[in-house]
């Protein structure tokens, strides 16, 4: 069965060198950047599975954290073009890519959505992070991005980043807290009420949300609790069949998309096979498996 991995990552080599020039300590701050197949597309191809086509998005490096608005925007545009070049060079490996924005330049980011994302069929949407410039993603200053994505019917890929105000950030627990908190902030900001056709794909199977479903249902007003089920989620749980079962039960099989976080999580090229084994162990009906592996993401893009 053909599978589309909706949430795989890259760090294009020229972009990585540009970011290293801004901060030479990046490899020690973010050890995952040492994963060779993030940047080496030839090596990545040697690990590719013939029945999986990846949708690739950038790792959580953003020029807006290092540069003033105009310079950040120019570097983002350069990185997006490099991403598109990779897609054109490896059409059999990649189904498409996800653009980056510089949210310290809202006008320029809106132009990227209109003039780059919408105009290039291989660029399927845009990636946003749980915090930008130290602020919640639901900060009103970022609202025009959501309005434009809604207007253009462009999906948003939501990826966690750490809240740098906290001294105990860690990749195991607080990573998933940041994702869950951002979901709550977007719901409480009323974005699904104002933008009813908004498409947001949440990494890591919706993080803590399925587990705390009844807290959501009993604490939030009914219409906001229902808005949580309007997110789409991927399957990037490093396996974990019971966790996937809970996510499918909570969000519904129409809103769960095969996604792996490749090539991160399990060396050398990611947890694709572990996630496939976990999904297959659930013995879902063939129709539902096809939705999760292929049809749901195809419908979105």
Oligomer: single chain
Strand order of the largest sheet: 1-2-3-4-7-8-9-10
Structural class: alpha/beta
- Average per-residue pLDDT, rounded, comes to 97
Biggest sheet, open or closed, and with what strands and sense? 8 strands, parallel
Compressed to H and E, one letter per element, the order equals EHHHEHEHEEEHEHHEHHEHEHH
CATH class label: Alpha Beta
Number of helices: 13
- CATH fold-level topology: TIM Barrel
Q: Share of helix among residues?
A: 40-55%
Task: Please state the CA-atom Rg, rounded to the nearest Å.
Answer: 18 Å
Cα distance spanning the termini: 19 Å
CATH architecture annotation: Alpha-Beta Barrel
Q: Shape, please?
A: globular
Name the CATH superfamily assignment. Metal-dependent hydrolases
Quick one: how many beta strands?
A: 10
Low-confidence stretches: none
Number of domains: 1
GO molecular function: carboxy-lyase activity; hydrolase activity
Keywords: Hydrolase, Lyase
Protein name: Amidohydrolase
GO cellular component, one term: cytoplasm
Descriptors for this entry?
two-stranded antiparallel sheet; alpha/beta; ACMSD; 301 residues; TIM Barrel; 8-stranded parallel β-sheet; hydrolase
What does this 3D model show about the protein?
This protein is α/β, with parallel strands linked by helices and 301 residues long. The chain has one domain: Metal-dependent hydrolases (TIM Barrel, Alpha-Beta Barrel), CATH 3.20.20. The chain is 44% helix and 15% strand. The protein contains 13 helices and 10 strands. The radius of gyration is 18 Å and the shape is globular. The two termini are 19 Å apart. The mean pLDDT is 97.
């Amino acid at each position: 069965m053909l599978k589309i991995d909706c949430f795989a990552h890259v760090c294009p080599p020229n972009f990585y060198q540009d970011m290293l020039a801004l901060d030479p300590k990046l490899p020690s701050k973010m050890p995952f950047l040492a994963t060779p197949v993030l940047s080496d597309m030839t090596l990545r191809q040697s690990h590719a599975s013939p029945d999986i086509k990846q949708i690739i998005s950038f790792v959580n490096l953003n020029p807006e954290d290092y540069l003033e608005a105009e310079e950040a925007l120019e570097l983002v545009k350069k990185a997006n073009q490099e991403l598109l070049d990779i897609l054109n060079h490896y059409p059999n490996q990649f189904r498409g890519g996800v653009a980056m924005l510089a949210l310290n330049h809202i006008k320029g980011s809106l132009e990227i959505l209109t003039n780059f994302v919408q105009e290039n069929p291989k660029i399927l949407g845009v990636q946003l992070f749980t915090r930008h410039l130290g602020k919640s993603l639901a900060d009103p200053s970022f609202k025009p991005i959501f309005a434009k994505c809604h207007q253009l019917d462009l999906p948003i890929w939501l990826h966690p980043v750490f809240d740098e105000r906290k001294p105990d950030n860690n990749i195991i627990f607080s990573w998933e807290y940041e994702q869950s908190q951002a979901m709550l902030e977007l719901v409480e900001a009323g974005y699904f009420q104002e933008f009813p056709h908004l498409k947001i794909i949440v990494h890591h199977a919706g993080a803590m949300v399925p587990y705390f479903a009844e807290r959501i249902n009993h604490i939030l007003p009914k219409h906001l609790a229902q808005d949580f089920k309007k997110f789409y989620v991927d399957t990037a749980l490093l396996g974990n069949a019971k966790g996937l079962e809970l996510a499918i039960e909570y969000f519904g099989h129409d809103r769960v998309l095969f996604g792996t976080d490749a090539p991160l999580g399990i060396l050398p090229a990611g947890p694709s096979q572990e996630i496939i084994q976990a999904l297959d162990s659930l013995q879902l009906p063939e129709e539902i498996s096809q939705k999760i592996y292929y049809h749901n993401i195809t419908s979105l893009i």
